[in-house]
Design brief:
By secondary structure, this protein is mainly alpha-helical. The chain has two domains: 88 residues, Endonuclease Iii, domain 2 (Orthogonal Bundle), CATH 1.10.1670; 102 residues, Endonuclease III, domain 1 (Orthogonal Bundle). Helix content is 47%, strand content 0%.
Length: 260
């Protein structure tokens, strides 16, 4: 019987030690879709479409028809008590100021009577109002200045009113408008919000909004314009939840988030 000889299997070439084995690519996990970014247009009015003069006229015509003679809500009996009430209203509500000043103005409705009352007693009357200590000091100081520099009468220019302790541009605008019938635009938080939200007069500062409103509002409406805008912001165009469903100008408003 013949002997069967088997051939040896071929030897594999050795792998060099310094040569790395090719890595096997692992499958990448599926990426989750990125959350959709909220468009800036959702929070900012469309300022690319400015109001036309006809639209602005229509807005204030509607305000006038609904409320022909709007009144400020700060109670007062003369220009001096109006000045004091506006100074006290900084960072406070009109209702809160009225509650404090009803009794105050019964005994101190002139600069001389306010000085006679004195700072300490004045604090007792207005202690329910925020920053009442500083405000009492300012009211006594402005009363003294009105007497010494303006003959006891509230001055009738913006610069002079702004020179009084505690009085700024908004105070001057309110007094000039309500006491003396000047066509001024007092911009408080409500007017600032309405001017920006509607796109009627957008601005980063109260002064920008003020000048913007003065530029677009026809002269025939300027006497009452700031009252209409304040009341609109206070009772309709609310900060957190605007009442768009009852808004007189919802069809013209540029706010992209309006609910009508």
């Amino acid at each position: 019987m013949a002997k069967i000889t088997r051939k040896p299997a071929p030897r594999k070439a050795p792998v060099p030690k310094n040569k790395a084995q090719p890595a096997v690519a692992k499958p990448k996990p599926a990426r989750k879709p990125a959350p959709a970014k909220r468009s800036l247009k959702a929070t900012k009015p469309n300022f690319q479409k400015p109001w036309t003069p006809a639209e602005v006229h229509e807005v204030f015509s509607r305000f006038r028809k609904a409320n022909p003679e709007p009144k400020g809500e700060l109670e007062h009996v003369n220009p001096f008590t109006l000045l004091v009430a506006v100074v006290l209203s900084a960072q406070a509500t009109d209702a809160g100021v009225n509650k404090a000043t009803r009794a105050l103005f019964e005994i101190a409705d002139t600069p001389q009577k306010m000085l006679d009352l004195g700072e300490e007693r004045l604090r007792d009357y207005i202690k329910t109002i925020g920053l009442y200590r500083t405000k009492a000091k300012n009211v006594i100081a402005l009363s003294a200045k009105v007497l010494s520099e303006f003959g006891g009468e509230v001055p009738r220019t913006r610069a002079e009113i702004e020179s009084l302790p505690g009085a700024g541009r908004k105070t001057a605008n309110v007094v000039l408008n309500m006491a003396f019938g000047e066509h001024t635009m007092a911009v408080d938080t409500h007017v600032f919000r309405v001017g920006n939200r509607t796109g009627l007069a957008p601005g980063k500062t109260p002064l920008e909004v003020e000048l913007g409103l003065e530029k677009v509002i026809p002269a025939e409406f300027m006497l009452h314009a700031h009252h209409w805008l304040i009341l609109h912001g206070r009772y309709t165009c609310l900060a957190r939840k605007p009442r768009c469903e009852v808004c007189l100008i919802n069809d013209l408003c540029r706010w992209p988030e309006k609910t009508v």
